[in-house]
């Protein structure tokens, strides 16, 4: 596995692969890698001739007072892990490489990026879209892989790819969970043992909302209340939002259906945990009319 730090070198590798007719997969990450990232890399290795994993703690997606400085980092462990999964290139640019002096152009996601996490993290999705477009431009992948724990992020990036006529296909991948249901996240490392013990309540709340739907409940407000009532049992949790939206465009819905995304974010100690559920009994591979995924 090769470590590449400049955009120029990354482009040269990708150009050389293309000349040989090889397909390329990209897994964008901010590092401190866990099996959730590992599952994206494994899928990319299966589906492409070459796999690039990027590690870049992107300053433009962090707001003032957020955890940019303290975001967990362990480059050596990450490199050993990615090598063991047969990634071909670890792309690890420095901030000055991605945002040289005078950098002034951003990709906005004004519609989808203001809802859900965007409401409490202004500018976050502008930073995400901008860096992902730059990473796609550097690696020129056929496919890019994203976890559905960050469902809003995935839907925004897929819209960006469509709106800007990008050649990369954006691939959604199932959330990977700990045995007790907690969605894997680099930020779980912020939790104290006591907080970690109660953290799966977020998932429990979402499963209770799903049970409400399965039992015939269709009121969006009620489905969201099921999540907030579950979390209310643990005073260390502070709910940021629980919202039911249409998975296709993230617009709020009043009635829940199989294509509703119920997304939530909650603070627990130093961590801000996010998770979601799509009320689709057969999961993201379900096909709609015309053989295309419904969302
Ligand atoms: O999901 C993440 O880790 C980041 O938001 C991403 C997509 C790597 C962009 O910095």
Write up what this structure looks like:
- The structure is a single chain.
- 39% of the residues are buried.
- This protein has 295 residues and is of the alpha/beta class.
- Helix content is 36%, strand content 19%.
- Helix 7 links the parallel strand 5 (143-147) and strand 6 (169-173).
- It has helices spanning 7-19, 35-47, 75-84, 95-98, 117-120, 124-139, 151-163, 193-198, 201-214, 220-232; strands at 2-4, 24-29, 50-55, 89-91, 143-147, 169-173, 237-246, 260-268, 271-278.
- The chain folds into two domains: 2-173, HUPs (Rossmann fold); 186-279, 2-Layer Sandwich (Pantoate--beta-alanine Ligase, Chain: A,domain 2), CATH 3.30.1300.
- Helix 6 crosses helix 7 and helix 9 (201-214) packs antiparallel against helix 10 (220-232).
- It contains ten helices and nine strands.
- The strands form two sheets. A six-stranded parallel β-sheet has the order 1-4-3-2-5-6, sandwiched between helices. A three-stranded antiparallel β-sheet has the order 7-8-9, covered by helices on one side.
- The site of pantoate has 10 residues, from strand 2 and helix 6.
Please write out the topology:
Blueprint lengths: L1 E3 L2 H13 L4 E6 L5 H13 L2 E6 L19 H10 L4 E3 L3 H4 L18 H4 L3 H16 L3 E5 L3 H13 L5 E5 L19 H6 L2 H14 L5 H13 L4 E10 L13 E9 L2 E8 L17
Parallel strand pairs: 1-4, 2-3, 2-5, 3-4, 5-6
Antiparallel strand pairs: 7-8, 8-9
């Amino acid at each position: 596995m090769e470590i590449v730090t400049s955009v120029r070198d990354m482009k040269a590798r990708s150009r050389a692969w293309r000349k040989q007719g090889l397909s390329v997969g990209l897994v964008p990450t901010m590092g401190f890698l866990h099996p959730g990232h590992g599952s994206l890399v494994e899928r990319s290795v299966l589906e492409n001739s070459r796999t690039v994993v990027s590690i870049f703690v992107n300053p433009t997606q962090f707001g003032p007072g957020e955890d940019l400085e303290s975001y967990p980092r362990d480059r050596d462990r990450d490199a050993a892990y990615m090598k063991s999964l047969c990634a071909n290139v670890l792309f690890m640019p420095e901030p000055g490489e991605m945002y040289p002096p005078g950098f002034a152009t951003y990709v906005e996601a004004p519609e989808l990026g203001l809802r859900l996490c965007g409401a409490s993290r202004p500018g976050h999705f502008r930073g995400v879209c901008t860096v992902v477009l730059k990473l796609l431009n550097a690696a020129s992948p056929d496919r890019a892989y994203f976890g559905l724990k960050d469902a809003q992020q995935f839907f925004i990036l897929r819209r960006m790819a469509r709106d800007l006529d990008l050649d990369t296909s954006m691939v959604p991948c199932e959330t990977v969970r700990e045995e007790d249901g907690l969605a894997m996240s680099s930020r779980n490392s912020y939790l104290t043992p006591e907080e970690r013990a109660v953290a799966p309540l977020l998932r429990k709340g979402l499963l209770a909302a799903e049970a409400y739907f399965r039992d015939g409940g269709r009121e969006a407000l009620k489905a969201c209340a099921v999540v907030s009532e579950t979390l209310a049992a643990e005073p260390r949790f502070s709910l940021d939002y629980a919202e039911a939206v249409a998975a296709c465009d993230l617009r709020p819905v009043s009635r829940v259906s199989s294509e509703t995304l119920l997304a939530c974010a909650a603070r627990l100690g130093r961590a801000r945990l996010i998770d979601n559920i799509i009320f689709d009994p057969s999961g993201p591979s379900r096909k709609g009319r015309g053989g295309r995924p419904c969302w």
